[in-house]
Amino acid sequence: MTALARTPVLDEDDSNLVLDPQDVFSAFDWVEARGLRPELTMLDPWYNKGVGGVVDEAEYDRFIAELLERACRVSPHVYLWGFPEILGPYVRCIPGSHRLVAWLTWYYKNNPSVIRGWRSAQMTCLHLAEPDAPMYPQHFINAAQKQRLEDGTLRYMPGPPSVIESPLIIGFIGKKEQTGHPAQKPVAVYDKLIRMVTVESDTIFDPMCGSGTTGAVAKIRGRRAIMNDVNPEYAAIAQRRLGEDYTGWAERLDAELNNRETGAPKARRTSQDLPPDDISVG
Ligand SMILES: C[S@@+](CC[C@H](N)C(=O)[O-])C[C@H]1O[C@@H](n2cnc3c(N)ncnc32)[C@H](O)[C@@H]1O
Question: Which architecture characterizes domain 12-264 according to CATH?
Answer without folding.
Answer: 3-Layer(aba) Sandwich (3.40)
